[in-house]
# Entry
Amino acid sequence: MTGLCLDGLRPALEGVIASVLATCDATGTPNVSMISQVHYAGPERVALSYQFFNKTRRNIMETRRATVLVTDPETLAHYRLTLCYEDTHTEGPLFESMKAKLAGIASHHGVEDVFRLLGSDVFRVEDIEPMSGPVTAPPPNRPSLLAATRRVCAGLAGAEDLDGLFDALTGGLGAHLGIRWSMVLIAEPATGRLYTVATQGYPVTGVGAEVAPGEGVIGVAARENAPIRIGHMTRDYRYGAAMSDGARRSGLFCDVPRLIPFPGLAAPRSQIALPISECGEAVGVLFAESDEINRFGYEEEDALALVAAHLGARMALLRQEGAEAPDPPRAQLPAAQGQVTVRYFNADQSVFLDGDYLIKGVAGAILWRLLREHDARGRTEFTTRELRLDPGLRLPAQAENLDARLILLRKRLDERCACLKIEKAGRGRFRLLPGCRLILEEPDAVSAPH
Amino acid sequence: MADESPMPSESVTLPPDLRALAQSGCGVAVASCGPGGTPLLGLGAGCRIGVGGRVRVLLPRAPNLALLTALEGGAPVAVTFTATRDHCSFQIKARRARLCPACSDDLPEIDRQMALFQDGLVEIGYSRLQATGYCAHQRADLMALELIPERVFTQTPGPGAGTELGA
# Structure
């Protein structure tokens, strides 16, 4: 060994500059090809993507040896890695991480069936040889990523509720990590769909926008419960295009009726999505993107994974805190005047205000329940407990993210309607604030037989 | 080109589109087999193809000593050419290659291909600094590697990669 460590080569394993792989068959005939991924798999190992049973794969199975050439995109130093094959993972975190990266690329290009990871071939790195040649200096005076991560996590500790936690997160990412565009999505346990509860940096908040499991980098990160990132969208796009000339460039997210437009960048160059986990299960996704190429590398992935883990822990802690907080001051709405027609469609639990779409799903059902209670009994004060216990809301058995739904509902009302608001009224309690006369209609309600 | 000796009977004539690709300023990777079956790997700087079909790959000597030593000792060779813009790629193989010094004729053509290669890298999103640095080499260090392709394979990423031309 030359004394070089693989950790120091992680920028060269980002795939910014294509890697080259050489193998030989048992008779010594060489084979050389480009390789999709040379994935960092620990201080002494890399994993190569196994996508097709081709000559490279046959050679590896025959001889267990390979040599790969990687290039650091900043210093432009080339390194030759001498590899010894150990085994192939077809499941587990490593496989899921590499599969998710490929799946994200495939979803982006609509070539899911072609771009499929069959296995992660794990190799022990026996030697690292720096190749001679001109090398540029790395950028000087780079800020400490670890210190910035610590500051972001410290900011989360000061949040007193979920809403404040999300704001502290997205604000902290911008202030300390220079991440201008970010969002938090929370998973719907029953369907696996993710809905946006907080965003930063976009012209419209897009709160309420939904992502299906497996859709784009966000959906894949949630489904696989593994971080995924695309650091060089242009290269990835062209790589996908080369595999299927007819592949259409599909949008990252589906386009269905009654959908709040996704607030993402129109032309991102880098994206990263990290699962927010509780007890090993993905309950949400932290997403960030950039207009820069290769904005998020292994180091940023580690930093954001720490932040996402901290976020998940803070979310669980906030939920478990039972102490009653003092009632916040009640918001003052303008004196009630005018009227708004609220229509509720039971089929998809969607709510429209004077014909304008507001929200659907569980959040829509919650709002409709509150409005009917208010209409029938004049109630304005409610508890999250009664919502959890209401079978009519069809809440999942484990409705841990009810608070996130209420945040979503409150933000949507703040954005769309000056005459109806929801505010916190203490821990576990909230208040409905109608600012005008509300006319409730349920066009697809089943009439009771006469 | 220094040598236009007769082609061996096993040789394969590259079709015009592959000849064009190889000389268009593409990525060039060279591999051979070292002692104990170790795969040896290096990057080429460019390629010239003679009238008779002889492929002349230019590559720097210093970073590729083990590779060049194996080739000088008669080890087989594989060379892959990859277009930057669409990743179209093909691979040639031969049982042996001949090493010789780069000649003055090589340099203008390699400069031309390097310029095209850098432009291609910039077009797909690399910075100009990255493209220039990636292609940098010492002209005085260049060696020429000559081979007659005996087998040719498509190498464009995807399930069809590895298909042999004329098989």
Summary: The two ends of chain B are 29 Å apart (CA to CA).
